[in-house]
Design brief:
The protein has 7 helices and 8 strands. It has helices at about 5-30, 35-70, 75-80, 115-130, 175-180, 185-195, 225-230; strands spanning about 90-100, 135, 140, 150, 155, 160, 165-170, 195-210. It is an alpha+beta fold.
């Protein structure tokens, strides 16, 4: 009677051990291999992504073909024009400026006989005041970020070194721009007083190249029109 309980306990222990080992094996198999349902889901997701990609590529191809056929929108074209990103042609002026050819008199400062960056800047300002729509100096297109600075014995425009003779091209009304330059006491009289050589030619066709430099805005960001209006 003393050992009657040992056999049932042993049987129960064996069964519990078998069930426990089976459960552990199933859990390990589940973790090591992805469920078949999950693999099927991944296949479906991959097919959907491939289909969406193909649709987007087709749409992009169509948009590119449409843009090449009709060109940029009017708004984009106006932006490119204002930014100097397209070459322009039209009637206008050519202004050639060179250093003085007159020999210096005793005691005269040699600086008075050479063209300075300030001289070119004043000429450009007068041309713009006379209605110039596009301006270049030695084929360097002037845009809103252009600079005309002094670099030793030469001048920099758009970070490019230019040397005399300086040829300024301007598209606009030739008569109006010529009158702006020729005002009494204006920039032309000032330069000629010091012997600087200046010639002005009215042209029926002036070609001004596109701006070749880059644009980098680090601090300025566009603001939506609705926020500006509010």
């Amino acid at each position: 009677m003393k050992n009657n309980w040992q056999l049932p306990v042993a049987l129960v222990s064996v069964v519990m051990g078998f069930l426990l080992s089976t459960q552990i094996k199933n859990q390990r198999d589940y973790r090591e291999a992805p469920p078949s349902r999950r693999a099927e889901d991944l296949v479906v997701m991959l097919r959907n992504a491939e289909s969406a990609k193909a649709d987007l590529e087709k749409e992009l191809k169509g948009l590119r073909a449409e843009r090449e056929g009709v060109g940029p929108s009017p708004r984009a074209a106006a932006g490119e024009l204002a930014a100097g990103m397209v070459a322009l042609e039209g009637q206008g002026l050519e202004v050639s400026v060179s250093d003085s050819a007159k020999p210096l008199q005793k005691g005269e400062d040699p600086n008075i006989a050479i063209v300075h960056n300030d001289d070119l800047l004043r000429l450009v300002n007068e041309l713009r005041a006379g209605g110039a729509e596009a301006v270049s100096i030695n084929d360097q297109r002037l845009v809103d970020t252009s600079e005309i600075t002094c670099a030793g014995s030469t001048i920099l425009v758009n970070q490019s070194r230019i040397t005399p003779p300086f040829v300024i091209k301007a598209i606009g009304n030739p008569d109006t721009m010529s009158a702006a330059l020729g005002l009494r006491g204006g920039i032309i009289e000032y330069l000629q007083f010091y012997g600087i050589q200046v010639s002005i030619s009215k042209k029926s066709e002036v070609l001004i190249p596109m701006y070749s430099g880059g644009s980098h805005y680090r601090y300025a960001k566009p603001v939506p029109a609705r926020e500006v209006q509010s």
